Batch of 3 targets.
Target 1
Amino acid sequence: MTVQIGTFVALGDSFTEGLDDPRADQAGYLGWADRFAQLLAAQQPGLRYANLAVRGKLLSQVADQQVPQAIAMAPDLVSLAAGGNDLLRFRADPDALAQTFDDAVRTLLMAGCQVLIFTGFDPRFPVLRLIRGQVAAYNMHLRAIADRHGCDVVDLWSMAVLADPRAWSADRLHLTPDGHRRVALRACEVLGVDVAEDWREPWPTLDSPTASGRAAWLAARRMDLRWARDHAAPWVARRVRGISSGDNVDPKRPELLHL
């Protein structure tokens, strides 16, 4: 690894907070950022790490609230992954989001931080596919921003291994523990952190045969209905009431601390 990183601050929403990757002690979530920090610390002894990400945050909230807090810590590396919650509301303008993102990146760079940018995932599940075009447009902006400012990029869209349903939790929005593990390994690859595992490793072969034809279609529709009832409906209800899953939730690591 050529770049020395002694301090790392992660910014964003639920993806970076770590949903749905519960810690072994059930005291909150682990997630890709915690996993990446652990891998980085193995090569950078004494690494200090903060995670300011909070579930449900919009890009403007990340830029207005988390970016100034990060700058105050003067970290070597800042990761920025945000905008997904805006796009999920189906009325977001990718061009306007990109301008806000670019301003945040400029601010961090001017403060002397190295910035690691994350693109959005390729939304493949029913309903979520409706925003696929917007996510693609936003991702093109993010890559352009990275090129313009010389930032490293973790391209989540191109991670074909995440197309497997086993990478996703029941809500279809958050990664499983193994999904987070693979993203952490991808971040290590981008930054040149040596690791023993490969994020491209194929998923294990399923022991039980999968259904086919009409049986498979019916099983998929049952899963869709269960998702709509258990996850989509509560999300819509929160939007109607004007509340967020992140209301009254504090960052899990608000200060730079040793692991």
Target 2
Amino acid sequence: MATHLTLHERYQIDLNLAQGLKPTIIARRLGRGRSTIYEEIKRGQFKGRYWSAHAEHRADAAKQRSAANHRTKPAALWDWIEASLVQDHSPAQIVARLPCVAPSQWCISAPAIYKRVARDRRSGGALHLHLRRAHRHDRWRYSSGGLPKDRPSIRERPAHVRNRRRRGHWEGDTCHGSHAAPDCTLVAVERKSLYSVLRKLKRATAPETADGLIEGMRDLPVHSITFDNGSEFAEYERVRDCLHCAAFFAQPRQPTQRARCENTIGLLRQYVPKYRSQKKITQEQLDEFAERLNHRPRVTLGGRTPHEVLFNLTPVRIRS
């Protein structure tokens, strides 16, 4: 089956809607997903109703705008761009120069050139060295926060940790409030169950952070922890040895590699607002916040709570 709806399918949607059929029934007749039909009806609205001709016209226009259907750039153009980069011309300067030296149908944008340079760098090329900010955006900085240079990378993490198939694999980060106050909250989240551990930190120093992790997770199943690259996790080896677990570090500026922790911090903001001092927040209050988060039903867990998933408990059923 084709990925996109055809003109015939759009005509059938138009005809069935005119007959008063519901989108669910139309989806079943066409062998399409219900959400696909709903989105198609929404996009194909014209003068208050769905028109198949109008929907087809919009789809054709979208195909023309799609980058997948654009013509590739001539090899001669890329050769000239790379030669200009080697002469230390910036992408903006190259774009401005192109109309003066190339056929009128040739065109390029500065972002496209930067993407080309990024691909060249990943393949071991040296074009990025000719940019004026060649060394500004290294994604794996070994001088980050005074952490050891040989700290274990997330690239070394086993596949079963990434797939969240087993319990006991955690993510760690800190949640800060006001920049003027040093008080913050240490957040640890179990990747499979979303179970949270919150610890009060007077100051996000490496010793205090390590003590908080060890104290808060001592009685929980811990097989690995994936840390942020902040200097507060510099004593990760002590945490690893005390909890008898593995330790990994995410890449800088890659929050999606710790998405569970980032999402939990977002939920915690309901109780600990951003930019507000956490000086008056006590450990007892954080325990209450963690209790609420851990007993809150989650859609991604099928309606179960993090506490139930982590400890493999059966939800208490309502008695009739």
Target 3
Amino acid sequence: MADLPELEITARGLTDVGQRRDHNEDALLVDDALHLYVVADGMGGHAGGGTASKLAVETIQKSLAAARARAPEAFAGKHTIEDSPLPEILKGAVEEACRVIFEAARTDPELAGMGTTVTAAAVDGRCAFVAHVGDSRCYLVRDRRIYQVSEDHSLVNEQLKAGAISADEARRSRFKNIITRSVGFEADVQVDLLGLDLADGDALVLCCDGLSNLVEDPEILEIVEKEPIDVAPVRLVALANDRGGDDNISVVVVRVREPAPRGGGTSPGLPAADG
């Protein structure tokens, strides 16, 4: 793997207030310099939710930037899933965000009880690492299929795993917005970590439940596969809004591809332009 060139990455994100809310409690990050991509869906009242998601994104970004300054070799893009230091760095960044949010809520009564989901992806060469808390999601799009690689930390998902409800009942449940784990509600949080070996043509989709509750996985797949990178997030958000937009809607699409051969041209079977 060390002899292979890094995959080229393009990413775009979009967040929208939706049709029913008067303010946006989501935050997202597209940091191509760090190869860091984050979606956070805040909760906790008019001020709290937006503050929590913003603090999460800012803290994770600052933590990874500081880690790169201390140890640039950790971000050199030459690691495998097994030997990369990036997952622990990413996990530590989410844990730090949890402490920052919890402390902010403790010192300001107007922010009491705030928290946020976090789904963060960091790309290291030909690997991606995902840190996840809550019910925002990470999907992998590969070879005309879509895979949900994160697990929802939600009451409905717990009921579904236990066999207490069916998949159809889960989609219609009035409890589908209740999450069982969040960043900042308590001082510490358990962070799910996973690693993915990336391949030419793969895409990652990070989104909040304002999208995934209204847009089916096959529809996400179709839009991400067919639309250019600049258009895909716009189309996804528009589709959720067309179906009622009952929550804030945020999505980041990350696409990877083999670099063009030296001397010009493109890799076999790939178009010259993104999309």
